[in-house]
Write a structure and sequence with these properties.
single chain; 395 residues; alpha/beta; nine-stranded mixed β-sheet; 9 strands; 35% helix
Length: 395
């Protein structure tokens, strides 16, 4: 058995044990929203202000360590915009957390790379949007940023630190993914892509709303038929609908074994879900984790409780997100139209390649509200059932 599958098995065992005791295992802590880039797809506002002090951060780390949290991810904005960034990492390492760090890599110079190697993080995630400066810097809007990120990745890899290159997939960079994946392999880095682009956390609709960057229907079809084909084949070979998630299961682990702490000390179910479950400046982690009724409501959002999702025949292919449903449509216990769009295109790609039965042609009950290009916020309420040629299934 490979290390990968041993690690996955151990993680699943840990999650199962945590579920029995309701204990947290994973915390993501965002210590700042400040960033020196202004990426086109980013849903953060980067204003900063009223951030937790060093003392407050360390106090929270002590609390989550006492609760048995093992995995800690530290992030920004750009994490290293904080002058105490190294100190926080050092303290977290001394507390015994299995550390992961999210960064642009911009501030990882030789000395900092030495420091990171000394604390032995599980991995450092670096955001890279393309295999060259032209594509990457069209996203970051910061000249020289591609070289800074690549130099940081090489410095860390040279010191034996695992690097994970991560790419949100947009219309502008979807055609560059194969080359980007090859570049990561040549570097010796891991690589992953995320095809979901969401709007600002506040739900504000602006001309520069990140959702305008989503892949069009045609590009999304190419993505699932090309870049994701091998992954889908591995996951769905031999798949039948009776293996679809039970209505009694939740589509999301937000607030169950994992949670998110924002720069002001608010505890949230996940990084994207804006609803605070309580302030760690006013309450202890233990009080919120075990006593918050709001957090318990999030944990209990099973498929059965999600309107329309609970009758959807495409649920087997869906990766629905509580946060996207709430931010974009105002209802956490309802569907995420972007998840619906992805589920249909993924399912159709699987069917076309003979991995699932030809009879898999049902459409989600939300279909009349879905824009095939992902611009659901612009879909008129009067829209009734028109199908884009790229997504047309039934005559």
């Amino acid at each position: 058995m490979s290390f990968k599958y041993k690690a996955v098995g151990a993680a699943n065992m840990l999650a199962a044990q945590a579920a029995k005791t309701r204990a947290p295992t994973t915390v993501t802590m965002q210590v700042t929203e400040r960033c020196n880039y202004s990426c086109t797809h980013c849903f953060q506002d980067h204003e900063g202000g009223d951030e937790l002090s060093t003392k407050e951060v360390i106090d929270i780390l002590e609390q989550i360590a006492d609760e048995g949290v093992l995995f800690l991810t530290l992030m920004g904005g750009e994490y290293f915009m904080r002058p105490d960034a190294n100190e926080i990492l050092r303290v977290a390492h001394e507390m015994g957390f299995a550390l992961k760090l999210l960064s642009t890599g911009h501030h990882i110079h030789e000395k900092r790379a030495d420091f990171l190697a000394s604390i032995r993080p599980l991995q450092v995630d670096i955001s890279v949007y393309g295999p060259n400066p032209r594509v990457h810097e069209a996203v970051t809007r910061h000249p020289g940023s591609w070289q800074r990120s690549m130099d940081a990745a090489r410095r860390l890899l040279d010191r034996g630190v695992m690097v994970h290159l991560k790419s949100p997939v947009m219309e502008s960079n979807a055609g560059e993914l194969a080359e980007l994946a090859n570049m990561a392999r040549e570097l010796g880095a891991q690589y992953s892509r995320d095809a979901k682009i969401t709007t600002f956390k506040s739900g504000t609709r602006e001309a520069a709303d990140p959702v305008t960057l989503r892949m069009t229907a045609a590009t999304l079809g190419e993505f699932y038929g090309g870049e994701m084909a091998a992954h889908l084949e591995e996951r769905f070979t031999g798949f039948t609908k009776d293996r679809a998630p039970s209505l009694q299961r939740t589509p999301c682990r937000a607030g169950r074994q994992a949670c998110f702490i924002d720069p002001k000390g608010e505890l949230l179910p996940c990084a994207s879900l804006p609803n605070s479950m309580g302030s760690l400046r006013q309450m202890s982690f233990e009080e919120i984790w075990y006593g918050s009724e709001s957090l318990e409501d999030v944990r209990n959002l099973t498929w059965a409780r999600l309107s329309e999702c609970n009758t959807c025949e495409v649920r087997a292919y869906c990766s629905r997100c509580h946060a996207m449903a709430l931010i974009e449509h105002g209802k956490m216990d309802g569907p995420s139209l972007e998840a619906c769009r992805h589920a249909v295109v993924m399912r159709d790609s699987l069917r076309e390649r003979g991995l699932i039965p030809e009879t898999e042609v049902a459409m989600p009950p939300t279909w009349e509200r879905i824009d095939p290009n992902g611009q659901h916020q612009e879909r008129a309420e009067s829209f009734r059932g028109r199908r884009s040629r790229a997504l047309r299934i039934l005559p």
